[in-house]
Amino acid sequence: MHQVLRLLSKVAERYAPSRLLSFDSVHVFKTMQLMKNKKRISRSLLMHELGLGEGSVKTLVKHMKMSGLIENSNAGMWSTNKGKTVYEKLHDAIPNEMDIFKCSIALGKFNYAVLVKDIAYNVRSGIEQRDAAIKLGAVGATTLIFKNGRLLMPDTREDLLRNNPKIHSLIIKKLEPKDNDVIIIGSSASKKTAELAAKSAALHTIANREKH
Questions:
Q1: Taking CA atoms, which of 10, 56, 64, 134 is between 20 and 30 Å from 168?
Q2: Model confidence over 8-62: pLDDT tens digits?
Q3: In whole angstroms, what is the distance from residue 167 CA to residue 39 CA?
Q4: pLDDT value, residue 19
Q5: Could you tell me the pTM of the whole model?
Q6: Assign residue 207 a region: left if phi > 0, alpha if psi is -120 to 50, beta otherwise?
């Protein structure tokens, strides 16, 4: 997984003396997801889904092609075999995601949850995940650990959903967590930002595990 994350970071690095980039690893991840779901995609779709300008998307596509992740033509762009392999590894680590309505654990206008497999031991208080989400423009993030059928706060081990069985059941049904899985919920005034923030925090959490 270290090589996968390093590759995403490399795609999001600027080539001197180019200007600072307005995208990072999570935009590469989201692009690969879109290609998986739609096979072939256009730059206009990327602009819409990623919330990036035309110039940024053009650079993103260029960098992904230079790294061997995609090919493109006038008809759009698509994943190479290398790109598909990289995406499958990412999908194994972050397999499920969902929108979540405003509730006691998700206070943003828009909230988006992702499941990160078997990584609870690498989560301390949830502050690192919150900071990673804020860096993407979110108002914050909530991190939960799944243990013995309960969704717990990582620092206090408090079950904040004990009085909200509806949202608890919905999360379990949609995300299908197992013991020691982690759920990260990004919250924002923007739906796109909430999603990207949750995924960015997930990538950050996996990267920290690789460092150790």
A1: 134
A2: 999 888 775 556 668 999 999 999 999 988 878 999 999 999 999 999 999 999 9
A3: 33
A4: 61
A5: 0.93
A6: alpha
Q: Name the residue with tokens 């497999």.
A: 117
149-174 b/e (C-beta count within 10 Å ≥ 16 → b): ebbbbbeeeebbbeeeeebbebbbee
Structural domains of the chain ordered from first start: 2-90 (1.10.10.10), 95-211 (3.30.1360.30)
Of residues 107, 143, 127, 135, the one with CA closest to residue 193: 135
pLDDT single digits (tens) 139-177: 999 999 999 999 999 988 888 888 888 889 999 999 999
Pair 126, 142: CB distance under 8 Å: yes
CA angle 127, 143, 197 (to 5 degrees): 80
DSSP 135: H
